[in-house]
Design a protein that fits this description.
Radius of gyration: 20 Å
Helix content: 25-40%
Largest sheet: 8 strands, antiparallel
Number of strands: 12
Strand content: 15-25%
CATH class: Alpha Beta
Number of domains: 1
CATH architecture: 3-Layer(aba) Sandwich
Shape: globular
Strand order of the largest sheet: 2-1-12-11-10-9-8-7
Length: 374
């Protein structure tokens, strides 16, 4: 993946950020005609009461069509509203794509949910077991494998996640750490707990799934993504790497201090490395609502916990006002994302924002729940 350069030295002062938010009316392409338009507008304006937010693009997917709404700006430096073609980082919503590919591998008979996943890795990793109990796809895809959060280890950095230099230290730690370095470090990785014992969020676990997919299919993860997801769905602006025209549509991201941020790490890959537009993500959500597809049925099948409070293949499972809800959020250095599904109502939401402020991921989910409820 190519590094999309963005200097950490380019910052906006807190005073400038506050001035921008307090003197500029939030721009929108909402036509304010339908009940849905009004519900979205109310929820979006509530979102922008937090002056840390910059812009947000929303897609509401219903059974017969999709609706798109864009608010705010692609940059703090100019009042340019995003569009449905604007490109954002998906961050950890990427995991749902990786999980869908893994579900495809299970349906194809190339992987199993409960077999020894070490057999699917490119090498001998006898260390990825706890008292003889190996990691499995089920435990990896639900964060129950006992894997560390990241390789290289980021726990010391996350102990002080709100430090102003957190992003810079993350970039420095991962400088030059690519596939070969990951594979080498993986030989020395020890599980933090027994598989199935407890849930600990792990990007490293999803990178393992990506490696397994590459081995069982004999193709790079980006080719698998195109073959099984983006090309069949007509998602032309989604991928791990952006070409020149796509880079021109990439919005700026901002941290909790209002500073311009770098884009995600080059080694984010199958864990949190995808870019996409809301136009593309609406197509993805429509597919995720198609329970006639065996890949989707397996993707949303309860693997841990219960249907009203559990985990599927990357997806969180719960209830919203008595209705099943399936969701996944994401956060990078300067962007936040949410994909929210209401399978019984065949309704879904995609919400992409270009800030990583306190609570943005939750606030995006609140927009979806509020609009759905109305």
């Amino acid at each position: 993946m190519r590094w999309l350069g963005c200097s950490l030295a380019l910052i906006c002062s807190t005073a400038a950020v506050t001035a921008y938010a307090s003197t500029t009316r939030v721009s929108s392409d909402n036509p304010h005609r339908s009940t849905l338009d009004i519900a979205v507008d109310k929820a979006a304006n509530d979102f922008f009461r937090n002056r840390c937010h910059v812009g947000v693009s929303i897609a509401v997917v219903e059974e017969d069509r999709s609706y798109f709404y864009d608010y705010g700006s692609i940059s703090r430096n100019k009042a340019e509203r995003p569009t449905r073609q604007s490109i954002y980082e998906l961050a950890s919503v990427t995991k749902t794509f990786t999980a869908a590919l893994a579900a495809r591998a299970v349906v194809d008979g190339r992987m199993s949910l409960d077999g020894d996943f070490r057999n699917d890795l490119p090498g001998d990793y006898g260390n990825l077991a706890w008292n003889g109990k190996p990691i499995t796809l089920r435990t990896l895809v639900t964060h129950y494998a006992g894997m560390p959060r990241d390789i290289p280890d980021t726990d010391p950095l996350f102990a002080n996640k709100h430090s102003p230099d957190f992003n810079a230290r993350m970039v420095a730690l991962n400088q030059g750490f690519g596939r070969e370095q990951f594979l080498a470090a993986l030989h020395n990785t020890k599980l933090h707990s027994a598989p199935d014992e407890k849930q600990v969020y792990s990007n490293a676990g999803f990178l393992l799934i990506g490696l397994g997919l590459e081995k069982v299919y004999g193709k790079p993860i980006d080719e698998l993504l195109q073959q099984y997801i983006t090309r069949p769905l007509g998602m032309t602006s989604t991928g791990f790497v952006l070409d020149g025209s796509e880079q021109s549509r990439l919005v700026n991201g901002y941290d909790r201090y209002g500073r311009l941020t770098p884009y995600h790490l080059p080694n984010a890959g199958a864990a949190w490395g995808l870019y996409a537009s809301t136009e593309d993500m609406a197509k993805y959500v429509r597919w995720q609502l198609d329970d006639s597809d065996p890949v989707i049925r397996l993707s949303h099948h309860v693997l841990m916990g219960k249907a009203d409070d559990g985990d599927a293949m990357a997806w969180n499972l719960g209830k919203d006002q008595g209705q099943p809800i399936v969701w996944h959020s994401g956060g990078s250095f300067g962007m936040s994302s949410q994909a929210v599904l209401y399978p019984k109502q065949h309704e879904g939401f995609v919400l992409l924002a270009n800030d990583a402020c306190d609570g943005t991921e939750g606030a995006l989910k609140t927009i979806a729940e509020t609009v759905h409820g109305r």
